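Ops channel
N.P.: pipeline sanity check, posting one input/output pair.
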């Protein structure tokens, strides 16, 4: 990794790294947002924000950038001139099923217009279809979620776990899973106990 990323002409206010760890986005008083390739040190894209940039960050899938400028504006960017993360990164989430009554563990059905799904789900970024992630991904993701709930960071090595690379069961496209899941189980007592564990 290069020691210096050269390009900004005034102080840099914000630097964040993409979810796959391969890029950084920086924002500066020089009115620009820059996207960097952390492997080569190359500046991949420059966006002129029209005012000093106070903060800049990637979206969770790395495909978008959001930045805030000193004139009170928010800018949402979809860079087209740098290659997408390969394979694309996805996260297992617990979905909310609209219009489905909540069934309690004792069999009581509550008149609630929706319920949490019993399973964690992913959406393939190649074909758009939903699927349940493979068991190793769920196990790693549940552990990662516990770490994050405690307010701790996952180590870089967690993101490099080869078990997080798996193809879509629908189209076979290569995917990479985040080493954490987004799960409402801890905050929603209506989720039955059996749904709180990953499917084994
Ligand atoms: Zn697919």
């Amino acid at each position: 990794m290069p020691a210096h990323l050269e390009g900004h002409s005034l102080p840099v206010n914000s630097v964040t790294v993409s979810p796959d760890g391969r890029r950084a986005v920086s924002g500066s008083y020089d009115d620009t947002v820059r996207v960097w390739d952390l492997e080569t040190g190359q500046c991949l894209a420059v966006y002129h924000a029209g005012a000093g940039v106070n903060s800049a960050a990637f979206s969770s899938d790395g495909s978008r950038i959001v930045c805030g400028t000193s004139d009170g504006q928010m800018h949402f960017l979809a860079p087209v001139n740098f290659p997408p993360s390969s394979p694309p990164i996805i996260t297992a989430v617990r979905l909310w099923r609209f219009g489905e009554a909540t069934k309690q563990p004792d069999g009581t059905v509550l008149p609630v217009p929706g319920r949490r799904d019993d399973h964690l789900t992913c959406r393939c970024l190649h074909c758009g279809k939903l699927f349940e992630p493979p068991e190793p991904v769920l196990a790693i993701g549940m552990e990662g979620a516990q770490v994050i709930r405690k307010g701790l960071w996952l180590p870089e090595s967690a993101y490099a776990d080869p078990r997080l690379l798996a193809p879509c069961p629908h189209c076979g496209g290569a995917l990479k899973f985040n080493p954490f899941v987004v799960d409402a189980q801890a905050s929603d007592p209506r989720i039955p106990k059996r749904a709180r564990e990953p499917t084994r």
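N.P.: looks fine end to end. Helices lie at 135-149, 156-159.
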